[in-house]
Design brief:
With about 325 residues, the chain is of the alpha/beta class. The protein contains 9 helices and 13 strands. Helices cover about 35% and strands about 25% of the residues. Strand 12 and strand 13 form a beta hairpin. Helix 1 crosses helix 7 and helix 5 packs across helix 6. The longest helix is centred in the C-terminal third of the chain and has 15 residues.
Length: about 325
Amino acid sequence: MTRPSTITRFAGSRIAIIGDVMLDHFLMGRADRISPEAPVPIVRLDREEFRLGGAANVAANVAALTGVPLLCGLVGNDDAGRTLIASLKTAGIESDRIIVDPTRPTTEKIRAVTERLQQVARIDRESSSPIAGPSLAAMVQHIESLDACQAIVISDYDKGTVTRPIIEAAVAAAARMHCPLLIDPKIPDAAYYHGATVITPNHREAEIMTGLVIRDHDDARAAAHRIHHASGGSVLMTWGERGMWVMDASETPPREVVMPATAREVADVTGAGDTVIATLALAIAAGSSLVQAAGLANHAAGIAVGRFGPAAVTAADLQRISGQ
C-alpha cells in the first residue's frame, strides 16, 4: 500500500495557536499627485481590504492546509475586533477561544497602498501592555482545557498576549498532550521561551537574541547554538533571500542544514513567518522530522512572499510546488 503524502496527512490535525491576533486593514487606491500640505502622496481610495494577521494568520494557514486550528487570542470590544472575528468565521476558524477585553484595542495595522501595491503609510492601533486580570486568567484556562492537539504554536508579536504565565501554561499543555511546542519569538531573551521544542526566529531576531552579526554559515551556526542553549529547543532561522538555517537538537550531534530560498519573486514578506510555522507544525504533527518539515515550510514561504499581504497557502498550492 502506498503511504499517504505528508501534505495529505495534514488533514484533520489539531493545531493550537496561542498569541497576538491582529487585523490587517488595507486602504487601496491611486496615488498620482503629491499633497500641497506636506511632501506625501495623496491616495484616492478605491477599496478597503481586511486580512487576518499575527496568530490569526497562522490559524488561517493551518486551516488552508487542511488542519484544524484552535486559536487562543484576544481582541478589544471595537469594530476591528468584530471584523476580525467575522473574518475568522469566513475562514472556517472557530472564535470561541477569542477573549474580548474592553480595556484594550484590537491590534490593527492600517496601511495605505497604491494600485502598484506600494505601501505609502502605516498606522498601528495597539496596546503592548501585558494582559492581566480576567483576560489572563481566561487565556490560561483556555490553554489548560486544550485536548488532543498534535502541536501547539505560540505566535509572539510582543503585543502583550504572550506573557510568562501563558508560556508556562503552553509548556505544561504540550507535556500533558505529548505534542511539540513551536514558538515564533519576539522577545530578545531566548531563555524567555524555555521549554520550546522548536523556536523560529528570523535573521534579525536571531541577531538581537544572540548579540551576533549573522553574515555567513559559521555565524548562523553560532547563533543557533546560543539560542538552543538558552531555550532548550531546536532552531529554524529564516534568512530572507538566503533561505533557512535549521538545527535539529533532537539528534546527537545536532543536525544542521542550510536550505536555499525557493521564491522566484518577492512581492511582500508580510506574514511569511506565520506561513512557515503553520506548515512546520502540521508537517511535524504528520510525522516528519524537523529537517523534512522545514523543507515543506521553505516551499510554503516561497509561495507566501510572492503574494501581497498576509496570505494563506493552501494544501493544493504546497503540493503543486513541492511535488509531495
